[in-house]
Design brief:
Layout (H helix, E strand, L loop, with lengths): L4 H12 L20 E3 L9 H5 L5 E2 L4 E3 L8 H5 L5 E3 L14 E2 L16 H7 L3 E7 L5 H8 L12 E3 L8 E5 L4 H13 L5 E5 L1 H5 L13 H4 L4 E3 L6 H11 L3
Parallel strand pairs: 6-7, 6-8, 8-9, 9-10
Antiparallel strand pairs: 1-4, 2-3, 3-5
């Protein structure tokens, strides 16, 4: 006898278990997640195989470095390295307030959190309990956009920290930019930021927003926005995990 649709739904829900993350600040991602890489520069013999397969030019050798702002976390470099000089871990706390801190040379252990300098006290008092953000997809593939959307679902619930994505920049305290910023979106991005009341935050989410990603050399981009406006938080990934997003913003707010 076939079960009723309602009973089937109950069985599916029971099979899923308890998917809610109790506290994203202390949560860990699955072992299979590809996060901050561990670099063993002493093992690198300069064969150049990693340089040849990296789609975004994120790797340099002599000495061995990886720019997480350009890295798309594909893992191809690890797969072709015969010496095991590059091994991706599942460390997901990758966000940082300084672009230079996204360049890893192996001196920082992968289990250490990327440094995030909290906002100054006046801004923490202003945004610490209620932060509204307007997301702008500036030519993105929709991967980062999906993960930002997931950060607000019942599993991760970024809203428990008073952080919310809003529909209008007039209601926002800052913008979250995804995508490499195509020339067709450059003016719209400027208009969006201009519509956000001051003081306002600028957050770059995903490798495309931070560096242009695999599209960095494309003539279709116009990234002058980042020369005119300082970025308050860089959230690397392709796309960044919801826990990476939540961890970065919460630490920026001084939590």
């Amino acid at each position: 006898m076939r079960m009723t649709p309602f009973v089937e739904l109950l069985n599916i829900r029971r099979h899923h278990g308890h998917p809610v993350v109790p506290d994203p600040r202390r949560a860990n991602v699955a072992e299979a997640f590809r996060g901050r890489p561990r670099l063993a520069a002493g093992n690198c013999d300069g064969c150049g195989r990693c340089l040849a397969v990296c789609p975004s030019g994120a790797i340099t050798t002599a000495p061995l470095r990886i720019d997480l702002g350009r890295c798309v976390f594909c893992g191809d470099c690890q797969a072709v390295c015969p010496a095991g000089a590059i091994v991706f871990t599942n460390a997901h706390r990758l966000a940082t307030t300084r672009r230079a801190d996204l360049i890893l040379d192996g001196s920082t252990p992968p289990e250490a959190d990327s440094p995030v300098t909290p906002l100054e006290p006046a801004l923490r008092r202003l945004f610490g309990r209620s932060l509204k953000l307007r997301q702008v997809s500036a030519g993105g593939c929709n991967g980062c956009e999906w993960e930002l959307n997931a950060s607000g679902n019942v599993n991760f619930d970024i809203g428990r920290y008073g952080i919310e994505f809003v529909a209008s920049p007039r209601h926002a305290d800052g913008v979250v930019i995804t995508g490499p910023v195509s020339a067709n979106m450059a003016a719209a991005l400027e208009d969006t930021l201009r519509a956000v009341p001051a003081p306002r935050l600028v957050i770059a989410a995903g490798s495309c927003a931070i560096s242009g990603g695999v599209f960095a050399a494309s003539p279709a981009l116009d990234r002058m926005f980042f020369e005119r406006h300082p970025v308050d938080l860089f959230i690397p990934g392709c796309p960044p995990h919801p826990l990476t997003v939540i961890d970065g913003i919460v630490r920026l707010l001084g939590r």
